[in-house]
């Protein structure tokens, strides 16, 4: 697999074609259904919050952002991609579901892309989301303009043999199911908002305005906010910040406090690239890292073990 991806990356970065089979693998296609859904929901999430908002919807957004954001950073990233710690299987599944609700694909795809990112960090045509191919590419392009060496199921699954052994994670690795989950979240958000608003009325009456507030803030805005918060890790944290560790190769990772504040400590990206397996990214006491605080709590309560922190 390593050699196959390596050959594909060289061809992509040099713009050459070594053979018919490699050309096929390097083909890109515009995913029209995803592009329509992504652009429409992103535009709606940028406009509608100014027209539909309520205290309960904003609280709901903050709660769901925390659940899904930690599901990705604590679960998809530190637990699955790097195996920085271990938890019981039931808790592993709970964390995986929390991450899946962010609608960034199942753990198999997400982890495959992250491992590919580390293997070829900041090499255009090999790293799936490097800012050297433009900020638009990091935040939108690589999701919509799809290279086969990134999105082909038979290729990316080979990067996650550990997760492929689990039928639950194979079940989540289905993009059609992602659409159904997303539309399910929109429906549940609408109904939840209407019911919460209705409980404040006497007698009870379904609150259609608060239903729309939840639809916008919890259903639409949360997905977009979490998606681009992680996009900032791939863009801002490879462009603007401090670089205490001189990491190898073309890697340009940096630490950025602002990104760390908005996405649970993931902004200490240079620390992470220097110590990839570490469950702790904020390696100094003053580096805000809520995901690590959660892992530390799980360890102290006996739910997390084999927690790796460099120098510990």
Structural notes for this entry:
This protein is mostly helical. It has a domain at 53-122 and 156-300. Helices cover 62% and strands 2% of the residues. The protein has a two-stranded antiparallel sheet. α4 (55-81) packs across α6 (107-119) and α12 (175-199) crosses α13 (208-235). The radius of gyration is 20 Å and the shape is globular. The protein starts with a helix and ends in a 12-residue tail after the last helix. Mean pLDDT is 91; it is low at 1-24.
Report mean pLDDT, rounded to a whole number.
Answer: 91
Rg calc: 20 Å
Residue share in β-strands = under 5%
Estimated helix fraction: 55-70%
Shape: globular
Q: Which strands sit side by side, in order, in the main sheet? A: 1-2
* Quantity of strands, as a count: 2
Q: Major β-sheet, in short?
A: 2 strands, antiparallel
Number of helices: 16
The ordered H/E elements are HHEHHHHHEHHHHHHHHH
Helix/strand-derived class? mainly alpha
Low-confidence stretches: 1-24
Nutshell version of this structure?
With 312 residues, the chain is an all-alpha fold.
List the helices and strands and how they pair.
Elements: H1 2-14, H2 20-26, E1 28-30, H3 32-47, H4 55-81, H5 89-100, H6 107-119, H7 135-144, E2 145-147, H8 148-151, H9 153-156, H10 161-164, H11 167-172, H12 175-199, H13 208-235, H14 257-262, H15 269-274, H16 290-300
Antiparallel strand pairs: 1-2
Keywords:
312 residues, two-stranded antiparallel sheet
């Amino acid at each position: 697999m390593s050699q196959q991806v390596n050959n594909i990356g060289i061809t992509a970065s040099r713009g050459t074609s070594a053979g018919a089979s490699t050309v096929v693998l390097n083909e890109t296609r515009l995913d029209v259904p995803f592009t329509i859904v992504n652009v429409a929901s992103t535009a709606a999430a940028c406009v509608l919050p100014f027209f539909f908002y309520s205290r309960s919807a904003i609280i709901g957004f903050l709660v769901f952002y925390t659940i899904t954001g930690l599901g990705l950073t604590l679960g998809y990233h530190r637990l699955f991609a790097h195996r920085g710690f271990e938890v019981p299987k039931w808790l592993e599944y709970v964390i995986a579901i929390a991450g899946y609700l962010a609608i960034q694909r199942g753990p198999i795809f997400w982890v495959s892309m992250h491992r590919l990112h580390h293997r070829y960090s900041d090499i255009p045509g090999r790293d799936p989301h490097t800012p050297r191919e433009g900020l638009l590419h990091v935040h939108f392009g690589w999701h919509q303009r799809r290279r086969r060496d990134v999105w082909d199921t038979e290729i990316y699954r080979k990067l996650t043999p550990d997760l492929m052994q689990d039928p639950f994670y194979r079940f989540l690795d289905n993009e059609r199911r992602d659409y159904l989950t997303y539309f399910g979240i929109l429906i549940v958000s609408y109904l939840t908002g209407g019911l919460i608003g209705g409980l404040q009325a006497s007698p009870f009456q379904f609150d259609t305005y608060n239903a729309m507030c939840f639809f916008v803030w919890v259903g639409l805005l949360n997905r977009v906010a979490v998606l681009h918060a992680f996009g900032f890790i791939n863009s801002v944290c490879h462009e603007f910040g401090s670089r205490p560790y001189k990491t190898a190769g073309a890697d340009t990772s940096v630490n950025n406090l602002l990104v760390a504040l908005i996405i649970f400590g993931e902004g200490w990206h240079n620390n992470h690239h220097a110590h990839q397996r570490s469950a702790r990214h904020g390696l100094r006491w003053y580096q805000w890292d809520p995901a690590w605080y959660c892992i530390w709590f799980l360890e102290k309560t006996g739910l997390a073990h084999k927690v790796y922190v460099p120098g510990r």
